[in-house]
Amino acid sequence: MIRLKHYRYFLGMGVDLRHLRYIIAVAEERNITRAAERLDMQPPPLSRQIKAIERELDVQLFRRKPRGVELTDAGRAFVDNAHAVLAQVDYTFETTRRTARGEQGRICVGYSSTAAFHPLVPRVIREFRGAFPLVTVTLVESYPTDLIERIGDEKIDVAFIRRLEPNTEGIEINSLLEEQMVIALPTGHALAQGDDHVALSLKDLAGESFVLFGDTKGTLSMQSNAFVAACHVAGFSPRIGQIVPHISARLNLIAASLGVAVVAGSLQHIKMEGVAFRRLKGATQLRAPLSVASRRGDPSSVARQFLKLAKRTARVFHENDREAS
After folding, report:
1. In 60-199, which ranges are E strands?
2. Do 253 and 185 fall into the same domain?
3. What is the mean pLDDT of the chain?
4. 108 and 163 assigned to the same domain
């Protein structure tokens, strides 16, 4: 990295970047005429510029020879530092351009615990890091409401969440896809026996105790409230056994035969011992949305690049999933 003294050495003496290129061209060509051709100028003006720089610095940069010029020791010191200055200037310009294009910088990506298990989330992050290796990516896990608050406070840039309600003020929520819900049961449960392709309805679960998702204060999440409403439509009020803030705790309780739950289909990828999954039929209103939240009108080029890639990857994922089914 170039030190500040290099700039002071040249620019403080009234020498600008154009002059640096003049000296370098003459040093490399060892000839005023050839250097002038390279610089697309006439030899006399170039020769006058070189002499003016030497007067400004009060040093001799070149020894004049019958067929050209050669650098003095002072000239070599000048050229070495001039190369360093121009390299730093080029680096600064290119870094600025990459940052403006969103190809360099940093981004903080949040995700809720249930969203993290959908394969789209790690795929987006992996593809973004591959496409933009100069962007530093930081990951944060938290509750959806906390993630939304952190986006508003500019502590994180974007977040993958499960969200049902409309956009919050100042926050833009883009739906990426929706997935079907499945039923998570203890492996020893009567409904978990037999063909694992058999689908169950909510009414089949009317007598069960449910493990629902909520915060540490016991407040149900929006998805859990939607589930309770779906049970009412199916003709019964669900018996709530436990309310837990983390999906891992939810599945652990199910594995311990302390209840059942309706969860996003992507959680089947966990393959947790003691937990079986069965398809859910009916209850078409129960879907697991996966969205990406961001600040509305965020000027960050990196955030815009991330959102663009997330939407594009989600479209490809959805198309491939539809073809597979």
Report:
1. 62-65, 68-71, 104-111, 134-141, 158-161, 171-186
2. yes
3. 86
4. yes
